[in-house]
Design a protein that fits this description.
Blueprint lengths: L14 E6 L14 H9 L20 E6 L7 H17 L3 E6 L5 H11 L4 E5 L19 H7 L5 E7 L4 H10 L2 E4 L14 E7 L21 H10 L3 E8 L10 H18 L1
Parallel strand pairs: 1-2, 1-3, 3-8, 4-5, 4-7, 5-6, 7-8
Helix pairs in contact: 1-7, 2-3, 3-4, 6-7
Amino acid sequence: MQPTPSLDSLSPSMVALLGVPLDENSSYLRGAALAPAAIRQVLHSGSGNWCCEDGFDLSREPAWRDLGDIDLAGASGREAFNLISSKVEGLLTKGARPLLLGGDHSVTYPILEAFARIHPGLSILHLDAHPDLYNDLDGNPLSHASPFARIMENGLAGHLVQVGIRSATAHQREQARRFGVEMIEMRDWPQAQPLKFHGPVYLSLDLDVCDPAYAPGVSHHEPGGFSSRQVLDLLHSLDCQLVGADLVELNPGRDPSGISAALAAKLTKELLRKLLN
């Protein structure tokens, strides 16, 4: 499917795929801005097909569109965030369900600013090795290690559930208590009860929720994570009103074999399928 340059082709309940090529708030390595292009390269490479695991063929489904990437050329800081938020709000105003391809995890904050205007009090399911709850990191309150601190302190979500965490500092644990975050650490998975949500849910999936054996192409390797199969099974098992999602933190510069981009592309297909339900 070819990228569509405008919102004109969208109608209510359609799913919009949109790249967010921003990594200026990364704390260790840059490179995540190249992820949307790397994921699309896999999707369109011919190495696989457009079928999801349940046999649903995305290439025959007219209810989704690839809108390309947000143009962030020359923008940085709050200006870049405002462009992201405005673009996402435009999709939501059309009644679409967005799937955003980051970019580093800082992009989730401006995305949720837009969602909060349309879906106040929504729940967030956050899959990640890291809580990303720092008040700031290295003096940057917009860091990719801080989006959920900004989201919660600004009341952009009513409930935050974090799954796969395995590197929470004392500060971030205190932040989780402060904001009432439900943190399910990897050492405690699987939990006794399935994940349950009431009302609309936004899913934020950091690729490093996977063990680096399955996704080496991320900036922050954190052993002890999910297998690819476990993440797919978790997505398939979700029973909730999913209104949007993002997939972030693929770093093609650390992925010379392309195995991480291949996983990100597969997750993109399964997320599209979930949003189309």
